[in-house]
Specification:
This protein is an alpha/beta fold and 394 residues long. It is built from 12 helices and 23 strands. The model has no long low-confidence stretch (mean pLDDT 97). 47% of the residues are buried. α5 (182-196) packs across α9 (289-298) and α6 (200-210) runs antiparallel to α7.
């Protein structure tokens, strides 16, 4: 039994085997699926776990409440890593009432064919468990349309769904006060930028709904339970959802034979000599884009470069630009360069991406390299690095 506070218990599980979250994002340190029990006059389960982990999940529940029935299951978010055990829970607790909003139940029927024993709640509604009173706050598009959060107004605990979550399994401790959180901060940025990043405005709307609410614990569905670091966690989400950045430069490049990479190196040296300290460089074919997206969210400068390939843009760069465009990122500077052997297309394609989808502020002149760097194009790369440094640091 893992106690959080005031008859609230953690019954979640760790997944240390999955390689890619949602089949997309690397999990070098695993991930947790968090679920919680409130043991009151009425017993309430908050969210479930991915169905593959049902056996350890049900054992955690039984060790916590023994033979007591579960009266309510609150589903804050219908993604299957949180709702996937719903059908099996109903077999163990056939009289359980599932609590959600109108959009929850449409998805629940579609995913699991469940439509009975439900209780619909609206924004601000309260569920009385005895000592504990649960208030529901709808937070649509953080990051699905049915998402909501549940506030235990008795214990000042927010069950926040995916909000304030992060990648990384829990290695023994559950509360942030029990563990060294250093590994989780960048994983929170990566989680937010990869999963939630497109929805800055809905996140801001959710934060406004919760402004002024006293919170002693934030219980998300991934990562630690926040207690000592609540202020930092909320501040990070506020900043990221406003697309705020710190001065720094991400240089992403594709390269086949090293010529484009050498241009990227020249740009990086020039930017460094011009005063930029935070510079990260990524080969888009070697580094998973998850980490590149994370750092684009962190830093205000971006320079991308790639070869022409099959009279188009190098494939991995095309994919990365699509991923960035899909997140509606704001407040960024961009510069670009391209290389070609016999048909110049890369520079124009990157420009097209920026003009039609990214809408970042262009800095400097694009550099177009035929085959390999020469004295002129090397100088142009240096100028691009210097111009970007001036924009970043101004």
């Amino acid at each position: 039994m893992q106690t959080i506070t005031d008859n609230i218990y953690y019954v979640g599980v760790n997944d240390r085997n999955k390689h890619l979250f949602e089949g997309l994002w690397p999990l070098p340190n695993g991930v947790s699926y968090n679920s919680y029990i409130i043991d009151d006059e009425k017993v309430c389960l908050i969210d479930t776990v991915e169905v593959d982990f049902f056996i350890p999940f049900i054992k955690n529940i039984q060790q916590t409440i023994g033979d007591r029935p579960i009266d309510y299951l609150v589903i804050n978010h219908m993604e299957p890593d949180h709702s996937g055990s719903m059908e099996l829970i109903r077999k163990y607790y056939p009289n359980i009432t599932i609590v959600g909003n109108k959009k929850t139940f449409g998805m629940m029927k579609g995913f699991y064919g469940i439509s009975k024993n439900t209780k619909e709640v609206k924004n601000g509604d309260v569920l009385d468990l005895g000592s504990h009173k649960l208030q529901f706050v709808l937070t649509p598009m953080v990051h699905w349309p049915e998402t909501m959060v549940t506030l235990d107004t008795t214990a000042n605990v927010l069950f926040s769904g995916d909000a304030f979550g992060c990648f990384g399994a829990l290695n023994g401790g559950i509360l942030d006060s029990q563990i060294n959180c250093d590994t989780f901060w960048l994983e929170m940025v990566r989680y937010y930028s990869n999963i939630v990043g497109k929805y800055g405005t809905p996140v801001q709307n959710a934060l406004k709904k919760l402004a002024g609410v006293k919170l002693d614990y934030i219980c998300s569905t991934h990562g630690p339970v926040w207690h000592e670091n609540i202020g930092k966690v909320i501040s990070m989400y506020d900043s990221m959802s406003k697309y705020e950045t710190e001065p720094g430069l991400v240089i992403c490049y594709g390269t086949m034979y090293g010529n484009t990479e050498r241009a990227a190196e020249a740009i990086a040296r020039a930017a460094s000599e011009a005063g930029v300290k935070n510079i990260v460089m990524y080969n888009v074919s070697k580094t998973h884009h998850s980490y590149i997206i994370r750092d684009v969210f962190r830093y205000n400068g971006l320079i991308v470069g790639a070869p022409t390939y099959n009279t188009g843009l190098y494939h991995e760069m095309e994919v990365l630009l699509s991923e960035l465009a899909n997140r509606d990122i704001k407040n960024h500077y961009i510069g670009w360069f391209g290389n070609y052997g016999w048909a110049s297309k890369a520079v124009g394609k990157i420009q097209e991406w920026n003009e039609t989808r990214l809408h970042f502020e262009q800095v400097g002149e694009p550099v177009e390299i035929c085959q390999s760097l020469n004295e002129l194009t090397a100088h142009q790369c240096e100028e691009l690095g210097i111009n970007m440094a001036e924009a970043i640091l101004k």
